[in-house]
Amino acid sequence: MAHGRADLVVTPMNDSFVDFDMLGTVDPVSLELTKPSLYSLTVWEGRKQRALSGQRQAMDWVVLRNRLATTEARNRKRLEDRLNALAKRVGFRIGPGLRDRVIYRELFPFGLTIADLSPQVRPVPVSLQHLAARQELRALMHSLGLSAYSGETMLAAQ
Fold first, then answer.
1. pLDDT given for residue 82 in this prediction
2. Residue-number span of the structural domain to which 121 is assigned
3. pTM beyond cutoff 0.70
4. 75 with 31, same domain?
């Protein structure tokens, strides 16, 4: 029901075929996309509900690859290819993901995110990795259409 009412659906997924399996099924030998899976069908049903209820604005569905490794791998490229094929087939956008960064784990015990850092709030020393993480978050917020919020908040943190 929530999918039928949502203007924006954001689906984070780890960079693995284990997570991809909820979105689409691949042939185990060729790794070719065979069909959409459970969650893709759930979003499809939500879109149908939305259309039947007369809502004019289409649902925006964004899939984000989460906890990306810093190194390139053959599996990562295979997954990216299948994700692009599925995006065309079931109609989602692929947004910028967030890398697996130590800063996220460092801030967690304080109940903070990278967006919470400011000149007044600095529980850990700031490094270039913090700036890179902040830029990733800006790109993510912008891709979701939340750039006004992210720009205002994130600029205060510089």
1. 95
2. 101-158
3. yes
4. yes
